[in-house]
Amino acid sequence: MAANHRNQTPRFFLVGNAQKPNVKISFDRLARWLDGRGLLVGSDLDGKPAAINEAKPDYVVALGGDGTILNVVQAMQHRQVPIIGVNLGKLGYLAGFNENEFESQLDRILTDPDCISRRMLLDVLLVDAGGSTWRGIALNDCVLRVGDPYRTVGLSVSIDDHPVTTIVGDGLIIATPTGSTAHNMACGGPIVQPDVSAIVMTPLCPHSLTHRPIVVAPDVRVKVDVRKTSAGVAVVLDGQVVRPVPGGASLLVHRSAEQVQLVMNPHRHQWDLLVQKLKWGQGLTGPA
Fold first, then answer.
1. Spatial distance between the Cα atoms of 6 and 104, rounded to a whole number of angstroms
2. Catalytic residue among 66, 123, 170, 238
3. In this model, does residue 269 exceed pLDDT 80?
4. Which of 43-47, 215-219, 220-224 has the lowest mean pLDDT?
C-alpha cells in the first residue's frame, strides 16, 4: 500500500535499463531532478535492482520499458511498492508516462490513490522428483516451455487437485490479466481486462485439435505434473527468470496474497492503451 506522505517526504528509487539508447542521459537528468527535491534514496543503472530492497523506498521509478518494470517486480518479490514506469522502450504497455508527464504529474501521483492500479500476482512453486523446491513470482506469466532440442513435453494439468487434462506440445502459459496481452495474446489466448480477477491457461502448440485457452477463477490452484520431458524444458517467469524443469517435477501456481502496484497515467484510459499500442479492433484498411 502506498504510504501516506502528508507528514513525511516520499522516498524514490530510480532504476534504468542501460541497454536502451540514450537512457543514461535521461537517467542522470531524472536523478538530479528527484535529488534536488530531496526525494531520491537510491538508484541503479547497472542491472542490480536488488538494491531497491536495501533502500526501502516508497516508490520505484522504472526508466525503460515493460521489461524494466517486470525486472523491478522480480527484484521486490513480496515487498511491492508502487512502480512508476517512464517509457523509453518500444511498446511501453505497462509504462504509462514519458519524462515530461512524470514530472508534471508527480504531485497528483503522490496524492491521488486512484492513480494506482493493483494487479494480480502469481506465486510459483517448483518441486522436483526428489522433493527439492524453488519459488518465484510472476506479474505477467509463468510459462512452462520446451527448449533445445525442442521435443514435445507431456503435461498433466490439475485444478484444485482435480485432474483436468494432459497436454502434449510445446508447453503451457499460465497468465494473469496483466499478462494476457503479452505472450498469451501472441499465442492466441484471450485478452482480459487488467482489473478482472482471473487466471488464463493457454497451451503452446498442443498436438491436438481440442486444447484451447481457458479462463479460470482467480483463487484456484493449478498443478502441472511434467510426465514426458527432454533437455531444455524450463519454467520462465515474466520473461526474466528461467529455471530448468527436470522430468517428474511438479509446478504449482496460485494467486499471491501480494499485489503489484502500477502507477497509471490519469490522462490515459486503459482502452486507449489497447487500441493505440496494440492496435486492437482497428480495421484492415483506412477510412474511406
1. 19
2. 66
3. no
4. 43-47
Confidence of residue 3 (pLDDT cuts 50, 70, 90): very low
- What digits encode the pLDDT tens for the residues 123-137? 999 999 999 999 999
Closest CA to 171 of 207, 199, 139, 200: 207
- The pLDDT tens digits for 208-221 are 999 999 999 999 99
Q: How many CA atoms lie within 13 A of 102 on its CB side?
A: 26
Closest to 183 measured CA to CA, from 137, 240, 264: 240
Which one-letter DSSP state was computed for residue 115?
G
Domains within the chain, CATH numbers bracketed: 12-111 (3.40.50.10330), 122-257 (2.60.200.30)
H-helix or E-strand spanning residue 126: strand 116-127
CA distance to 55, 71, 98, 142, 284, per residue, from 238 (Å): 24, 8, 23, 7, 31
Q: Which residue has the cell 477510412?
A: 287
What are 195's three cell numbers? 482489473
User: Is 66 a catalytic site residue?
Assistant: yes
The structure's pTM equals 0.91
Buried b (16+ CB within 10 A) or exposed e, 255-281: bbeebbbbbbbeeeeeeebbeeeeeee
